[in-house]
Every structure is written in C-alpha cells, then in structure tokens.
Amino acid sequence: MKIATIGAGYVGLVTGVCFADLGHEVICVDVMEDKVEKINEGISPIYERDLDYMLKKNVGKRLIATTDLEYAVKNSEISFICVGTPSRDDGRINLDYIREASRDVGKSLRDLGYHLVVVKSSVVPGTTENLIIPEIEKYSGKNAGNDFGICVNPEFLREGLAAEDTLNPDRIIIGEFDKKSGDILFNLYKKNFNCPILRTNLRTAEMIKYASNNFLATKISFINEISNICQKLDIDVYEVARGMGLDHRIGPHFLNAGVGFGGSCLPKDLKAMIKLSHDLGYEPKLLNSVLEINEKQKLKVIEIAKSIMDLNKKTVTILGLAFKPGTDDIRESPAITIVDKLLKENCKIKAYDPKAMENFEKINKKIYYANSVDDALKDSDLCIILTEWDEFRDIYDKILRMKNPRVIDGRRTLDGKKAMKLGIEYFSIY
Ligand code: UGA
C-alpha cells in the first residue's frame, strides 16, 4: 500500500521504515528539514538498533522523506499521524502538534478521494473524537466515515528495540470509527503480522495505550516498594521478583527494582492519566502513589551517598545518563534529578555514557564528560551506576583502581556479592 507517516520521531520513523521493509511505499513527513535530509541520505536521526541498516536498505526505493505534508497525503492511501504529544507543565498532554497535523491533513484531503487517517500518537481517550475528527472535517469540508476513514492504532514499541517490537508485536489494537476504516487497517496488518488483532472503538483504543503504560509503571513502583520493605528485612528483592515472576498470572517482566522509570512515555502517560482523572472529578489514588514512589526512588541514591560520606567537594562518577540502555534518550532520566542533587551538595561530577552524553550536555554543562569508564573513575571518591549498559557489567578491575573502591548500583548492573568479595564497598538501593 501507499503509506504516509506524519512526524518522523521514534514512532513515525520506525513505523515508516518497518512498513517500507515489508514492501509498502512510504513517504515520511517532518517539519524539520535537516531531519528529512538525513533520512533521505539513509542516516537515522535517532540512535536505534537496526534502524540505520533498515533505512539504508529501503531509502530511495520504497521510502522517501519530505517536509511537504500535502504531497505525502495526496500520494498515499493511508496517513499515520505520529507527531509528539509531550507533557505540559500541568501534566496534560500538549496537543498543538496534533491539532496542526489534523488541520494540515484536513486541507490535503479537500480535493482527494477516500483516504484513511490513522492516529498513532498517544492521545488521551476522547481526543480523536473531540479534536482530531472535528479539525479534519473543518479543514477538508468532508465527513468522517463517508469521505475519509479514521482509526486509532496505538504503538507499543520500546526505545532501543523499536524496530524489533514493531515487526514482532504482542498484539495490534485497532480503534475504528466505522467498519470500512477498520477493515482497511485490519487488512494491512493481517497480511504482514500473525499476532492477535483487537478491533474496538476509538476511545477504547486510546485508553488501552494509556492503561498499558500505566500498568507497566505500576509494576515498577510496586517492586520498588516491595524492595524498600525487603531492604529492612535483609531480603534480596531480585530473588523475590524471580519467585513472583514464575506465576504466569504475574509474569517475570518489569519487576526490576532500581532508581525508577524514566523516558518519554511512562512518566508522561502516568501524569496525563492522573490529570485526565482530575478533570473527570476522580482521584486516582493508585496512580498518584505510582508517581510518588518513582520520584522518591531516585532520591534514595542521594540518601545512601550521604550516609557513606560527606559529599561536600567530593568527586562523584556517574556511569549511565540514558533513561535505559540501548538508547541515547535522556528524557525524564533519573540521572537528571540525581546529578542536579549532587551538584547542590557541592560535588564535582564526572559522567560517562556510551551513547547519551551529547544529549545530556545540551541540558547540563556543569559536569565533566569522560571519554571512557576509566577516565570517569580517575580520582573519583564514589561511583554511581544509573543505567545498566552491558559495558558496565564487568568493570570490577576498573573500580578496584579507585583510591577507595566504592559503588552505589542503581540498577543491579554488577554482582554485589562478587564486588564485595573483591574488596569493593558495594551499596545498592534495593
Ligand atoms: C514504554 C513501553 O514499554 C512501550 O511498550 C511503549 O510503547 C513506550 O513506552 C511508548 O509509550 O512509546 P520505553 O519508554 O521505551 O517504552 O521504555 P521501557 O522499556 O518501558 O522502560 C521505561 C523505564 O522503566 C526505563 O527507565 C527503565 O529503566 C525502567 N524499568 C523498566 C525499570 O525500572 N524496571 C523494570 O523492570 C523495567
């Protein structure tokens, strides 16, 4: 099929590249010219495993990028809206890009035949019905259902594994305005994927996305709470999680205790659902606690550091700035809060991350960015691990070269027992 993806961020670019790889003709649209240029040169503007290779394979053949949204819509049968919905200061999502995209899609549909519009961006329940459809209808002069189709099709890809998740999904959710719209999208997916496909209405599909991310966040805060209780009883929470995870009703995933969840999705979707609940006159007590536990979890690193030493004028090494391994993304990374707090304690910070230093430097120029783990540990009084990159898993020798080998492990990156046996002072927050 001929497909347009509007917005070439994580979701749009990965969706576009994956559809192209499956043999469809794809036009990726973005307002940023440099991004479009890079894509057309076969260079992915984001760091994501497999994406560069897949992009290079398809660009110029089945995939092109453009800033011309009208051209993309007019030369395709389905347009996927994939623009960002970042958090506003009050926790609600910023719908400016969605409004703009809906308006521009609407204008492009004016003198076009039937076209299917699919909302892939994460939008709170009701947004497609209350904002996107009215905008498209207003600017196209057409009616949803008759002249154009509309579906909500949330994505469940994880950063770092984006292409793999897109090509091997657990499920596909299709929220449909009407049967014809749903049939077109169903047929597109049915040909290429054999996972369960759930067809539902628009607002239910929107809610499935939020409920899924809120549940994952709940699992993490749950295990962090259990971990805080375990610590007082000298119980290893990772062993507890292993035991729990063997129950198929619980499952082994998302039960890793640590410095809490970050990223552009889990915190944002949680805040948006809390705000939506308030707007609806409901107090979401569980979701409030999930967020609160997560905020407190980051501060535990500082509490431990303070209990070990007087932090004033000490040199602290931070290993890991990305919100998780496999990405250069630092959005809502626990490292942001922890570095800020350490700077307030008058520490000198030396940081190292295999991918995320460039992005971190854009928001923090007060710390030293090292060129290796060794460089970061040189003359350091304390090492704090905040992202479980593989590169940090076997650094015992390097830590032992510190004048006082001392680590706070925020993500169970090292084997604590081994570290202690080797003579490293090992602390974990779980
Ligand atoms: C998340 C969801 O997992 C995806 O399904 C969803 O599509 C995506 O958001 C989105 O809405 O776009 P992502 O933000 O890429 O994906 O990252 P996750 O792998 O979910 O990790 C989020 C955070 O939780 C990370 O900081 C990670 O370190 C932390 N985490 C994860 C834990 O602290 N413990 C765990 O057991 C698992």
Task: Please characterize this protein's 3D structure.
The protein is of the alpha/beta class and 430 residues long. It has two domains: 2-200, NAD(P)-binding Rossmann-like Domain (Rossmann fold, 3-Layer(aba) Sandwich), CATH 3.40.50; 292-428, 3-Layer(aba) Sandwich (Rossmann fold). Helices cover 45% and strands 14% of the residues. It has helices at 10-21, 33-40, 51-58, 69-74, 96-109, 127-140, 162-167, 179-192, 202-233, 237-245, 266-279, 285-308, 334-344, 357-363, 373-377, 396-400, 416-421, and strands at 2-6, 25-29, 63-66, 78-81, 115-119, 148-152, 172-176, 197-200, 315-319, 348-352, 368-369, 382-385, 406-409, 425-428. The chain has an eight-stranded mixed beta sheet, with helices on both faces. A six-stranded parallel beta sheet has the order 11-10-9-12-13-14. Strand 1, helix 1 and strand 2 form a beta-alpha-beta unit. Helix 11 (266-279) crosses helix 12 (285-308) and helix 12 (285-308) crosses helix 13. The longest helix is centred in the middle third of the chain and has 32 residues, at 202-233. The termini are far apart. Bound molecules: uridine-5'-diphosphate-glucuronic acid. The site of uridine-5'-diphosphate-glucuronic acid has 21 residues, from helix 9.
